[in-house]
Amino acid sequence: MTLTQCKHSLFAVAFSAILSLFTFSHALAIEPVYTGFFSSNAVGGYDTVSFFKNKKPTKGKSQFSTSYKGATWLFSSQDNLNAFKKNPDQYAPQYGGYCAWAISQGYDASGSPKHYKIVDGKLYLNYNAGIQKKWMKNIPKHIASANKNWPNLVDAN
Questions:
Q1: Count of domains forming the chain
Q2: pTM of the entire structure?
Q3: Does residue 23 share a domain with residue 35?
Q4: For residue range 53-95, what is the model confidence (pLDDT) as tens digits?
């Protein structure tokens, strides 16, 4: 075997190993709440109660925080923190803050607090403006699909 053939062989083995790891990692269930890789904050540190009360996302503050479903949730005021603690399911985004459109398609992607919609009293996040346009073309259909896909994607533990 020549040096060039050996390099190509080694590259093929390394590429296969990386591809296998990538495929395996996507086969695993996702965490119940999206926090990103370098944070434990849900919804990028935004106050989820503010989406409902102020009709716009507001950054939370560390002095108004709580833990819920393995993530840290930040709020802009004690009142908003209290409202969340009283009924977290009312204020937490659907699908743990993952992109609602991605979940409807059967995979996960991060949800952005800047691309959201409240539908029937529930908060939905999307990855970006382009994805949100796709999602908004048929919200009821996408919600129905996401509701069906979510239990198979999320880690129930």
A1: 2
A2: 0.81
A3: no
A4: 999 999 999 999 999 999 999 999 999 999 999 999 999 999 9
